[in-house]
Design goal:
Elements lengths: L2 H11 L6 E9 L5 E9 L1 H9 L6 H5 L6 H10 L4 E10 L5 E9 L24 E5 L2 E5 L18 H14 L7 E8 L3 E4 L4 E2 L2 E8 H4 L3 H10 L6 H7 L6 E3 L4 E6 L1
Parallel strand pairs: 1-7
Antiparallel strand pairs: 1-2, 2-4, 3-4, 5-6, 6-12, 7-10, 8-12, 9-10, 10-11
């Protein structure tokens, strides 16, 4: 899992109107079994765009694979590792009008899971490496091989000019009403709770690997611009976590290996 991959997914969706909310929760049992809940919700405009398609590169194409049907979920289960099956698939309609799907996967052995959040159709073309898990007794280790890897050849892109920054601020002001509630989240939980962990973001037994609240970030045009630039730079996930650690609306786990003691 690479921070640029996730950010670029957000950048792509910013070309669309209305709301997108994606959440991934991995819950680990002490016996090595686990569940993965992946929920993707679209605002009414986005849902309509996905149905309309729009050809290669169009809105429908950009959203392809984000909201999975039952057959797509079965295919994704095969990519997640041995012993992963679809436990349930349900269509979701929220009171706020968002619609989408929630897929729950059953994991027979967390040690065989190869997890790539937000990459439902990565069948070999993705350059990111999967998150992996080891479990010895109640001691869980979560490894993100991409955490300290840079993207590209290390060549820094030139900074934006004053004119470009002014134009970007104007665009962000117009975008903000359209993306209220837009959010992408990755969480890890212990089924019986967490005794201790060295994770950077942990609260009430939930470890947050990623939490991007786009409307909050749009309140800070300069910061939002830096975040978007990092999506196409050679910034590693660890560097992004350090650079944006105090930004409200953005949480990133920068450690390559996170240790967890399950209750």
């Amino acid at each position: 899992m690479k921070i640029p991959n996730i950010l670029l997914a957000v950048v792509a969706s910013l070309g669309l109107a209305s709301c997108l909310e994606v959440k991934s929760v991995v819950t680990v049992n002490k016996d090595g079994t686990a569940t993965i809940e992946e929920t993707a919700l679209l605002g009414a405009q986005l849902a309509a765009m996905m149905k309309q398609g729009g050809g290669a590169g169009g809105p429908g194409e950009q959203l392809k694979g984000m909201v999975l049907d039952k057959a797509q979920a079965e295919e994704r289960a095969k990519l997640l590792g041995d012993g992963v099956t679809v436990k349930s698939h349900e269509e979701v309609t929220n009171p706020d009008g968002k619609t989408g799907a929630k897929v729950t996967y059953a994991v027979a052995d967390i040690r065989k899971l190869k997890y790539k959040p937000f990459e439902p159709e990565s069948k070999g073309e993705s350059k990111s490496e999967p998150m992996t898990f080891t479990l010895e007794g109640s001691s869980l280790s979560i490894t993100n091989p991409d955490a300290d890897k840079k993207k590209g050849d290390g060549t820094a892109k030139p900074k934006k000019s004053a004119e470009e920054i002014t134009a970007m601020k104007g665009q962000i002001a117009m975008m903000k009403p359209m993306f209220a509630g837009m959010r992408m989240t990755i969480e890890i939980k212990g089924a019986g709770g967490i005794g201790s962990t060295d994770a950077s973001h942990q609260k009430d037994g939930t470890i947050t690997y990623m939490d991007m609240q786009i409307d909050k970030l749009l309140d800070k045009p300069e910061v939002f611009g830096e975040i978007m630039e990092s999506a196409d730079s050679n910034l590693s996930m660890a560097e992004a976590a350090a650079k944006f650690k105090d930004i409200d609306g953005l949480k990133i786990e920068g450690k390559k290996v996170v240790k967890v003691e399950l209750k």
